[in-house]
Design brief:
Four copies of one chain form a homotetramer. The first copy, chain A, has 348 residues and is of the alpha/beta class. Helix content of chain A is 34%, strand content 18%. In chain A, α4 links the parallel β9 and β10. The N and C termini of chain A lie far apart (60 Å).
């Protein structure tokens, strides 16, 4: 860490800071600048206490950390991208994967219809929420166990692996019986107890970025999972909260680039939540391909205008099929391969 | 809800919207304006499905909800402020309560010293984290059960009721044995499974606002608790995430005023997290009193410069004692009474 | 506008609101809902006073505007995209234009070298700042008139039209002599006096979105220009200010899509400011093409590591040439044509 | 500045960075840490080029500035608070000043009535906009020169000094004839050309914080003025733009504290824009007094429900008079004196 002193600090004051730095296990190196004196504290910031509390000392102006706090997921530690397998589907090895399905599982028929439609259009994983975290306690909260049973059925019928959200440790066994990948949603993205419990199942984890999480917090959430011995994490950018109201969230594609540079995890994009508007899903999906994301997750519903949750950000089967067709040249221009071609061929 | 149509919508299109509105259980009233036609949909928005998915219809421009989604905690439903009792301490009946203690329980001696110091200066409730949600998995995570045992001891020695954070349903029994009030932290503020589990204990809940929660989301989180039959909720503003970096968070006192107008719950302010800078705790505490908050929660540590967590936002005993003295005229000018005077008298 | 009343409003109160609505020139239509009564006020919101001050009446809960405030630039008014010509270069007619050049004009040689390099790689317009608005008064403020003279020279040598920023009405004649398009920067994006002065020159205007401007404010800034009779406006998304610090700004591609749907103006993207990191310029440029933007504006410098301004977000000649090559398939997949091919052919 | 190198940087790479640092006029001091090597560059960051472009070098991870960029207004340079005089009214010498008046000057009578009412309640300066920067070009833009004439009249009648906004250099002479203090509004807060022109008039400047300006940017805007030799700057916090929509802006009182610690300028608070809701003006004004601000600026209108601009954030005469009465104990508890007592006495 770098401790920036107030201008005019005396030798005694500098010595006091050096003493505190040593006390906390670091080795101080003092550099007297023209305007400011700084004390560089040498030592591993991850394993030592933070020096930020030294801002209590009257001669300390600021304390600047210099080290990154994530290690296991860092590209610095291990440069090659991690490959995460979900059923037979690979993320991180050059294939662009499309996860699709309804926001909520609303019934057996609508789910199976959707699963078939998205598979036939080229999706490789089925999404669908059985447990729904909703802002209002009066909104539809998902079908729960029954929803999981429908997902089992849809998996059986279509052969697609399934990702579904875990919102409570209480549901973990039930969710694990059905899910090929566990989703941690934005509201629970900093719920470390849930992250650790999910990690311990050994299942791949789809980790959404928190509503207002920095890239660093997002990567450290992934580090929590990796630290439990589960490196099968896929990061998912889903828009952040900003002042703009024309879109529900602001999709932060720059953060996807940064996450891919900093970490070795695959990163996918959620254009449905990313804008919260069905009419922006197609262009934002193309943009996700263009920046080199490893895939997208899209909400698809047989009749969005009457969906029980988030109807305004789900698209219809036709729109999804068109999206998939449009996507291919962007995926290929980005040097990747659009997975799911086999599905499409089989369906045609 | 109000459905705003695209300009130039035809009679057939208007009829189609009216049909969908009826289908979803509302009664449509159409008003043809000079520039826009709007369809007002009459019906209880809380119990009916949202009409927002109607934005899928090509002639629909926007859908505007008009109703508030919280009921049980609403001041509209019940105008008088709820009184929440924690041990013998009352929030909402005109007393300004000061909750104080260390960020984390770091040991028995430091905790008891702090508890005594804050009680003698006028604090009425002791705070202290045993389970700490930390951004990095490598940071100090709290003493856990041992921390709770120290809190029991401090309660016994000082007579102060205790508030401590619950981060996982797994710890709920242990936390309940010690806590007179359960804190739900900012990271778990939208973790509805945890909110419901905490609600079911019947304990008073100190509900922090999420890092980027709107006032509406914050109040709806409280509604989740109230809907389980537990109306003993105290709201706590702790700063929101904004672009400003001179302070760790931006304390949103306007939101405190809005929360007090909209809901009938007591609202307190956390100036420690609110700015994330120990040197702003005093002025922001005075501001909290000035706007009519029901109290504050302040982090106090015997030696913040070496604290194991958040040392840069904790204050020393002396500073806390000075803060308490300064606070009184502001509390009284706001027409409230500074609780804890008995403690101070006994200590002197 | 829609006026939402407090629940429990009496008939007298409703009549009072209706009276005020009439007084302000609107026709009231009252709809008594199950939970709320709303008064729909029929009348042109753009030409009448806002009803928002009615929130002063005790029985009024909220006032919701329903109408959009922009007209001249609205796609609703005129559905086809405006074509804006800058020199011989067209925006809005299906060609993807690349504007490139240094952040600041630092000297004649560096400018001409850069102009040649970007033209030969396919750029069609030269950018370069002569008057630089800098956060610190001690930073390099641009070469001013001398900078304009160098731009004239570069235009003569390369044949590229020039866009340069106007920061003060005092410089308007000088800037107009050189500029084929006037840039209004993010800091002046809501400086309406400058917008109007720029509009009155009749030159095409490159209008950057303000640092924290909503899409609505951005479009209304364009409406200010159009209202002076100058419809030659190109909108430019350049990243917005959010809490995220991994990038200097957060590029908001969703807003580009919304701006294109709402307005009929061409919209381009500035990936240099959009992230503030040179290493993200390539992927974000590809994303801009993928969503259907009409072009990009990129900062290019012969030696960014010693640039006098914003060196960390400028790219070198080689990187720019690579970017241009990579861009083509994305532009074409988006159904557009990459302009500047003639330049490249001539250069090879 | 501190240059943080990539881990694993070689001796040659370190030497290259040291070379560049020297080339740019700084003296490098290299510290090899356990995890990271950092190069501290000694030299005045204000007068030298930024080293941030060194992020282009492949072995450079990040560059951290350590120095503050403001000097003339810094409390570090000169510890005592600047006293700024406007007419006979002093800011910065322990008196709490209340500036009040309508958002816009709408006519002679309404202005004089308001001026009398606010003076008699204890306001010491009259505010009123003659030139109004409005988001929509179709909104009321102020009475211009006629508005200034009314302000002259109101000044003559009430003896109150006047502050009014300058939005364009073209109006500067006219505004200066009337204004005792020039207001720079939030939209022009980073319009440096306007700041410099205003500075050169020698008049005191009321400098609002930009909508999304950091404290640093706000102080540097003041530094622009001071650098022209005009140190008579009063800073004004008026709320920042955040994701929260319950209030129009988020009043950032923590920033007021930081601005007062960092700079020696008086700082006042605008509770009208700070929340954009008339019903929060009273509590937020009390909070402003409680944190030690040097005053407030409040919008007051004879009949806000029909105001031509911002009626929803203006208060009536009675409310203003009550606010002034309520304010006194808070101002006094903060160790300041409520100015304007003479006005009140004379009026009674």
């Amino acid at each position: 860490m770098i401790i920036v002193l107030q201008s005019g600090s005396t030798d005694e004051q500098i010595a006091e800071v050096e003493g505190k730095v040593r006390e906390l296990g670091y080795v101080p190196h003092t550099i007297r600048g023209e305007v400011r004196t700084v004390v560089a504290a040498v030592g591993d910031e991850v394993t030592h206490s933070s020096l930020e509390p030294l801002s209590h000392l009257p001669m300390v102006d600021r304390v600047l950390p210099v080290q990154k706090k994530y290690k296991l997921i860092s590209r610095e530690t291990q440069p090659e991208t991690a490959v995460v397998r979900v059923g037979g589907v690979e993320f991180g090895s050059g294939q662009f994967q499309v996860i699709a399905g309804p926001c909520s599982v609303e019934g057996e028929e609508m789910l199976i219809d959707t699963a078939r439609a998205v598979r036939d259009a080229g999706a490789t994983i089925l999404r669908g929420g059985a447990f729904k975290p909703r802002t209002s306690p009066y909104s539809f909260q998902g079908l729960g166990q029954q929803g999981l049973a429908y997902l089992d059925k849809a998996k059986e019928v279509t052969g697609l692996p399934v990702v579904t959200e875990l919102v409570s440790v209480a549901d973990i066994d039930a969710v694990c019986r059905t899910a090929d990948m566990i989703q941690i949603g934005a509201r629970n993205a900093l719920n470390y107890a849930l992250l650790e419990a999910a990690a311990d199942t050994g299942k791949p984890i789809l980790l959404k970025r928190g509503m207002s999480a920095t890239v660093e917090e997002w990567l450290l959430a992934a580090e929590y999972i990796a630290k439990r011995g589960n490196g099968n994490v896929i990061l998912c950018e889903r828009g952040i909260r900003t002042y703009e109201t024309a879109t529900r969230n602001t999709l932060d594609l720059g953060a996807v680039c940064v996450a891919k540079r900093e970490s070795r995890l695959p990163v996918i994009v959620d254009p449905s939540h990313g804008a919260g508007r069905w009419d922006l899903i197609e262009p934002l999906s193309r943009a996700a391909a263009a920046i080199g994301a490893d895939g997208i997750i899209v909400e698809v519903h047989p009749n969005p205008a009457v969906a029980l949750s988030d109807g305004d950000q789900q698209i219809e089967f036709d729109t999804f099929a068109r999206l998939m067709k449009e996507l291919r040249p962007f995926v290929e221009a980005a040097g990747m391969e659009l997975a799911g071609a086999g599905n499409v061929a089989a369906a045609t």
